[in-house]
Amino acid sequence: MQIVLPHEADIDAGKVSVLSHVGAGLIGLVEGRTIAWTDPSGAERSLTPVMIEDPEGPVDP
User: Fold this and answer.
1) pLDDT digits (tens, 9 = 90+) for 48-60
2) What residue spans of 1-61 are helical by DSSP H?
3) Cβ contacts of residue 34 below 8 Å, gap of 6+?
């Protein structure tokens, strides 16, 4: 799953908008921690990242 800007969001491609509940909940989440939310259908969902990486690579100071 990748967090992207709203115009790049495509759930079928695993791209979630940073402005969605899931995208916002993932910001700052560390590996092994779980977020939970209720989806639009009312179903309870949870997500636990197992690996976090930056596709752009590390940022130089």
Assistant:
1) 888 777 777 666 6
2) 21-26
3) 46, 47, 48
Residue 1 CA to residue 48 CA, distance in Å, equals 11
Structure tokens at 18: 């940073």
CA 30 to chain centre: 11
* Residue with the larger pLDDT of the pair 44 and 21: 44
Q: Which 3 state secondary structure label does DSSP give 52?
A: coil
Global pTM reads 0.66
Residues 6 or more apart in contact with residue 46 via CB below 8 angstroms: 34, 35, 36, 37
